Amino acid sequence: MGFLTGKTAIITGAGRAVLSDGRCGSIGYGIATAYAKEGANVVITGRNVKKLEDAKEELERKLTKEQKVKKELEDRLTAEQNARKELEDSLSEEKKTKKKLEQSLSEEQKANEELKRSLSEEQKAKKKLAQSLSEEQKAKKKLEQNLSEEQEA
Question: CA 104 to CA 107: how far, in whole Å?
Answer without folding.
Answer: 5
